[in-house]
Amino acid sequence: MTLEKVSTGGSNTNFLQADDVKSANGKFICVEEPRMVETKYGSKLFVDVKPVEGAFENGDDKKTYVVNGKSQNRLIDELGSEETDWVSQPISLEVLNQVVQGSKKEVIYAEGALQ
Fold first, then answer.
1. What whole-number distance in Å separates Cα of residue 39 and Cα of residue 4?
2. Which DSSP symbol is given to 52?
3. Residues whose CB falls within 8 Å of the CB of residue 16, separated by 6 or more in sequence, listed in order
4. Counting runs of H as helices and runs of E as strands, what totals does the chain give?
5. N or C, fewer C-beta in 10 Å, the chain?
6. pLDDT digits (tens, 9 = 90+) for 53-67
């Protein structure tokens, strides 16, 4: 796997947001091999997804889901540890309200990651 650096500052509409998950009823397809990316928050798994039905409201073909640790473990359990096996596979996501750094925030998880 090759790491790549990305901009981590500011708002980027190419990253999957809670509203995107809600609009797609949490149903997505992995469109490319996932990749580990070094961010200012450490190494993160980036997964490019598209809705199973329809499109993103802003017209993007795909968006990047930045996976948290619990979701990463859940997705590996479901899809395996080989990146190539993830391509074209369905991914179910959900939005949960969580307290993050002292404030309530909508957080995207792989479905079942907190069970």
1. 9
2. S
3. 49, 63, 64, 65, 66, 93, 108
4. 2, 6
5. C
6. 988 988 899 999 999
107, two tokens? 């957080």
Return d(Cα 115, Cα 20) in angstroms, integer.
23
Q: Are 11 and 63 in contact (CB under 8 A)?
A: no
Give residue for tokens 């500052």.
Answer: 9
Tell whether the model's pLDDT for residue 12 goes beyond 80: no
pTM for this prediction: 0.85
Nearest to 53 by CA among 88, 18, 29: 29
Q: What distance in Å separates the CA atoms of residue 85 and residue 8, rounded to the nearest whole number?
A: 27
3-state secondary structure of 18: helix
Phi-psi region at 6: left, alpha or beta (left = phi > 0; alpha = psi -120 to 50): beta
Q: Of all helices (H) and strands (E), which one includes residue 77? A: helix 69-79
State whether residue 95 is helix, strand or coil: strand
